[in-house]
Amino acid sequence: MLKGIGASDGIGIGRVMLVVEQSLEYVPKEIADTDAELARYQSAVEAFCAETVEQAEAIRKSTGDKEAEILEGHIAIIKDPFMNGEIENLIKAHQCAEKAVDQICQMFIDMFNATGDELTMQRATDVKDIRDGLLSILLGVQNVKISDAPAGTVLVTGELTPSMTAGINKDNIVGIITETGSQTSHSAILARALEIPAVLSVAGATTCLSSDEQVIVDGNKGEVITAPTPEQIEEYASKREAFLRERRELENFRGRETASADGIKYELFCNIGTPKDATKAMAADGEGVGLFRTEFLFMDRNSLPTEDEQFEAYKQASIIMKGKPVIIRTLDIGGDKDIPYLGLAKEENPFMGFRAIRYCLKNREMFKSQIKAILRASAFGDIRIMFPLITAVEELRMGKELVEEAKADLKASDIAYDENIKVGVMTETAASGVIADLLAEEADFFSIGTNDLTGYTMAADRGNGDVSYLYSPLQPSVLRMIRRIIKCGREKGIDVGMCGEAAASPMMIPLLISFGLTEFSVSAPSVLKVRKNISKWTKEEADAIAEKVMAMTTEAEITAYLETIV
Amino acid sequence: MVSKKLTIVNAQGFHMRPASTFATAMGKYSSNVTLKVNGNTVNAKSLMNIIAACIKCGNEVEVICEGPDEVQALDEAVGMIESGFGE
């Protein structure tokens, strides 16, 4: 078995077609007749554009406008007056066209790669593709025709270029394996758009695999199974069927409201860790962000982020979400998340120690700059503030006081913010569950963090194999905690969401509907599944299930029962 | 010479499509059009130079136009950036 990155879900079973890049080596020459060489270059550009237009049309038909635009971008690049001018200048200075194209393209490839910015670095792939295309034309090299691949072909190549993708007939190509590429590379985006299972970054794929050998591509797990046994083929063929069936079903839920079978509406949000994740949330049809973790801003660096830096990140997320609700959780460090430059002391018991809101309230300047950044971003959309690890009403009060102070500062400086910004509590400690009635009086919303709530309620570390059997949100104690938090919040008329993993659990969903949860926040890939699961139940059915479950006395009994209903 | 400072509002910043539309639009003018961003000066008629400047959402850019049709050029440039390239 070969391991890589699963970049496009699904399973493909087929035979390898190796696409090895042709040598594009050339011998640089001094050119005497520069006019003739310029004409040769220009006709290569014309041929390249004509070929690209044709490929873009093919890909528009097979895949869509967006993918065709990538190729049309190649025409825009090659027509760039600055780049063309530089290439022509080199030719006028007696360089051969091959050398001129190569040198100038390489200059831009290096320039783009030097930015360290992922989006810009991806453009380097386009320039490389253009250079190879132009050199192939100038050198008269013939490339393997991917469009001729027979049915059941697994494409194996170094890097999937947009021009290669143009030749893909998705009825015939059942899988893609490449040696380079990441989740966000062109190869991945194109493979997903074509709905072809893909495993990228498989080291040595073009040397390990040979043409015509049978392989299984598991894009879900990022695995390539070589020399599969008949049993494996059978196993994966049925996995493939199940996957395709589910994909078809889930797509029906895209663009729909999230509602129970009897029409009660729910909010279905996403959990994100960076502004860029917001793009995934939008693509996954998320209706907002229920948990924006802000630790990324503080990690992998040597000093605190500035207020401006934070503001830009929060604003960006809100703009990407097109003004939909974005709940920003203030810094949650300590516990298992260390930030070296903060110089946190080593603790005997970090999960019970100096972390999250406790740390922030003791470091008011740092905390205030985060709150100000969030407030400033609130001028750009529906942004809400959430405090983690609240265990006592005073913590919420102190946090809210700081919000008011920050508002006064901004007002004094004439900076815009949302005066009515909602301030809520992440209910994730046993204490917050027990005093949910008191917190509900002063919080604008609750969001249940089931991961920590389960750990703190059960006093069990899920990472410790000896006690992890205790760690389950289906424990009667945890379910009572969840039910209580929702009830207390709803009685005071505030929204109660859930941003832990349990919100996406099919077994949990009927219980949450019955308890009265108003918002589910899940990872982007779970959105459609959760919407489908919510739509399965009426309130009445959910109530009947919850009534049975809450009368049961052990987690084992509850799990066994819920397994029969999902 | 005319100029204006603006903030990039579209989520993806000056990526491929906006950069290409922008460079093509600016190419029509005989004035010189440059962008000042993050301390760099960029030829706004060159898609490649705009991409290399790595202009992100939230960045401040100054559009500078100089030449016979500088007012019209600045007008169109500002309109495109402010509208977030229709995204």
Q: What is the gist of this entry?
A:
The complex is a heterodimer of chains A (566) and B (87). With 566 residues, chain A is of the alpha/beta class.
Features:
heterodimer, A: 566 residues, alpha/beta, Glucose Oxidase, domain 1, TIM Barrel, 3 domains, eight-stranded mixed sheet, eight-stranded parallel beta barrel, 22 helices, B: 87 residues, alpha+beta, Histidine-containing Protein, Chain: A, four-stranded antiparallel sheet, 3 helices, 36% helix, globular
Task: Give a written overview of the molecule.
The complex is a heterodimer of chains A (566) and B (87). In chain A, helix 1 (34-62) crosses helix 5 and helix 19 (509-515) crosses helix 21. In chain A, strand 4, helix 6 (162-166) and strand 5 form a beta-alpha-beta unit. Chain A has helices at 34-62, 65-78, 81-92, 97-114, 118-139, 162-166, 186-194, 205-208, 230-251, 275-283, 307-320, 356-362, 364-377, 393-412, 430-434, 436-442, 450-458, 476-491, 509-515, 527-535, 539-551, 555-565; strands spanning 2-3, 5-8, 11-19, 153-157, 173-178, 198-200, 214-218, 223-226, 267-272, 289-293, 326-329, 383-387, 423-427, 445-448, 495-498, 519-522. Chain A has three domains: 23-139, Orthogonal Bundle (Enzyme I, Chain A, domain 2), CATH 1.10.274; 146-251, Phosphohistidine domain (Glucose Oxidase, domain 1, 3-Layer(bba) Sandwich), CATH 3.50.30; 267-565, TIM Barrel. Chain A is α/β, with parallel strands linked by helices. With 87 residues, chain B is an alpha+beta fold. Chain B has one domain: Histidine-containing Protein, Chain: A (2-Layer Sandwich), CATH 3.30.1340.10. Helices cover 36% and strands 26% of the residues of chain B. Chain B contains three helices and four strands. Chain B has a four-stranded antiparallel β-sheet with strand order 1-4-2-3, covered by helices on one side. The longest helix of chain B is centred in the C-terminal third of the chain and has 13 residues, at 70-82. Chain B is globular. The model of chain B has no long low-confidence stretch (mean pLDDT 89). Chain A binds chain B through residues 69-70, 73, 76-77, 80-83, 108, 111-112, 115, 117, 119-120, 123, 126-127, 278-279, 312, 315-316, 319-320, and chain B through 9-13, 15-17, 20, 23-24, 27, 43, 45-49, 51-52, 54, 56-58.
